[in-house]
TrEMBL record:
Entry's family note: Belongs to the GatB/GatE family. GatB subfamily.
Organism: Spiribacter salinus M19-40
Function statement: Allows the formation of correctly charged Asn-tRNA(Asn) or Gln-tRNA(Gln) through the transamidation of misacylated Asp-tRNA(Asn) or Glu-tRNA(Gln) in organisms which lack either or both of asparaginyl-tRNA or glutaminyl-tRNA synthetases. The reaction takes place in the presence of glutamine and ATP through an activated phospho-Asp-tRNA(Asn) or phospho-Glu-tRNA(Gln).
Record protein name field: Aspartyl/glutamyl-tRNA(Asn/Gln) amidotransferase subunit B
Residue ranges occupied by any Asn/Gln amidotransferase domain in the UniProt entry: 328-475
């Protein structure tokens, strides 16, 4: 029997506010445990929550970017459950009337096709605290600093069919929330995380199978591994005559497998009811228009513009617009060096390679856009060759100065004097009579050998185009 997976993702984006969703306590990461949970976050008697307007504006921003409906009226509810890291015994969330309704996000597949993934809803809620299980012996510790931190839970339709599609969707949403400036996307700090709902069914069957939810996946790699394992696990159970239990599972990254955590709750298990301390949220058309005016250029629009304005391929444009900061950096370089393709090659090549090697973000690069553009101008005006430029870039990365200073200090300026190059070519030919005879007998691939001899003799400084032209004249003469 052939099987098909049905996958939906619930993405939790921590909103980039300075204070919590219902209190003035700080959301800064890394503070000493339990120093950023105030009386409101803890639900102490006599306190009342006050909604953070900035969190609402961020939710509207996402709704507009997803071409989703933004509710004129939405309601906060209490979601009741009892965990040690949930100090009030309930979580303030949204249930029946979320702030963002149905929308969509388009993803690119490996075969070059695009697929539209429906977004069911995005609702505002507060985060819980965190249970700590290391360093306390047989006990667990509770850190409530995260309690009350504003989250936007983004729920997809079950439109995803493979783990790769799920990762593509998650990456696209990750890029979008960062473009919008509503979430820093730091997955190691828990600012962007995923719950994956996975089921399988026979190919051709319309009804969904029983799903399992894999909780708290905080890397793209773990999402792919966890979903693939869960698909295989469910197929194996069904083919052995068993049944799938609706449950919540955790992914063990060391073992590469999911394991049961608890039975999966239904909505009625949480006993949702409207929060009596919070009025319904009213969003006016004027506020929506105001937020719309604040939107930056979105990734798809920017990618299309890069293709149209800079003549880039779809592939290059997609890579350069994956991050708003990277796109801005590229545009700054391209605008200063007047060769967009050269700028794209260097930003995606040498620069991105150096950033990955050092584990840095684009905003942390020691070679800013103006410095890289100046280096590229030296390639374009034939001061240095592309090969020598890589040596110069590495020196700039290590802090040896700008391109002009490195070129001068190291004596790297390209040799463009025709007579000097002719002398080098004549020496290379004279020193290798056997290869000359073979070349003239038809082994024209030896052209590369002679180029190498000339470049070796001049330390790579000779203009490659001139070397090739003069060599061909001499060898064929």
């Amino acid at each position: 029997m052939q099987w098909e997976a049905v996958i939906g993702l619930e993405l939790h984006a921590q909103l980039a506010t300075n204070t919590k969703i219902f209190s003035g306590a700080s959301t800064a990461y890394g503070a000493q445990a339990n120093t950023q949970a105030c009386a409101i976050d803890l639900g102490m008697p006599g306190v009342l929550p006050v909604l953070n307007e900035r969190a609402v504006r961020f939710a509207i921003r996402l709704g507009l970017a997803l071409d989703a409906t933004v509710a004129g009226r939405s309601v906060f509810a209490r979601k009741n459950y009892f965990y040690p890291d949930l100090p009030k015994g309930y979580q303030i969330s949204q249930y029946e009337i979320p702030v963002v309704g149905t929308g969509h996000l388009d993803i690119d597949l490996d075969d070059g096709e695009r697929k539209r993934i429906g977004v069911t809803r995005a609702h505002l809620e507060e985060d819980a605290g965190k249970s700590l299980h290391e360093g306390f012996g047989a006990m667990s510790g509770i850190d409530l600093n995260r309690a009350g931190t504003p989250l936007l839970e983004i729920v997809s339709e079950p439109d995803l069919r493979t783990a790769k599609e799920a990762v593509a969707y998650m990456k696209k949403m990750h890029s979008l929330v960062r473009y919008l400036g509503i979430c820093d996307g730091n997955m190691q700090e828990g600012s962007f995380r995923c719950d994956a709902n996975v089921s399988v069914r026979p190919v051709g069957q319309l009804a969904f199978g029983t799903r399992a939810e894999i909780k708290n996946l905080n890397s793209f790699r773990f999402v792919e591994r966890a979903i693939n394992y869960e698909i295989e696990r469910q197929i194996e159970v069904l083919e052995d005559g068993g049944t799938i239990t609706q449950e919540t599972r955790l992914f063990d990254s060391d073992r590469g497998e999911t394991r049961a955590m608890r039975g999966k709750e239904e909505a009625n298990d949480y006993r949702y009811f409207p929060d009596p301390d919070l009025l319904p949220l009213e969003i006016t058309p004027a506020l929506i228009d105001e937020v719309r005016d604040e939107l930056p250029e979105l990734p798809d629009a920017k990618r299309n513009r890069f293709v149209a304005d800079y003549g880039l391929s779809d592939y290059d444009a997609a890579n350069l617009t994956a991050s708003r900061d990277l796109a801005d950096y590229f545009e700054a370089v391209a605008g200063r060096c007047s060769d967009a393709k050269l700028a794209a090659n260097w930003v995606m090549g040498e620069l991105s390679g150096a950033l990955n090697r050092e584990g840095l973000e684009i905003g942390e690069t020691p070679v800013d856009a103006e410095a890289l553009a100046n280096l590229l101008r030296r390639i374009l005006d034939d001061t240095i060759s592309g090969k020598i430029a890589k040596e110069v870039f590495e020196a700039m990365w290590q802090g040896e100065g700008d391109a002009d200073a490195v070129i001068a200090d190291r004596g790297l300026e390209q040799v463009t004097d025709s007579s000097a190059i002719e002398a080098l070519v004549d020496e290379a030919i004279a020193a290798n009579p056997e290869q000359l005879e073979q070349y003239r007998a038809g082994k024209t691939k030896l052209m590369g050998f002679f180029v190498g001899q000339v470049m070796k003799a001049c330390g790579g400084k000779a203009n490659p185009q001139q070397v090739n032209e003069i060599l061909k004249q001499r060898l064929d003469g």
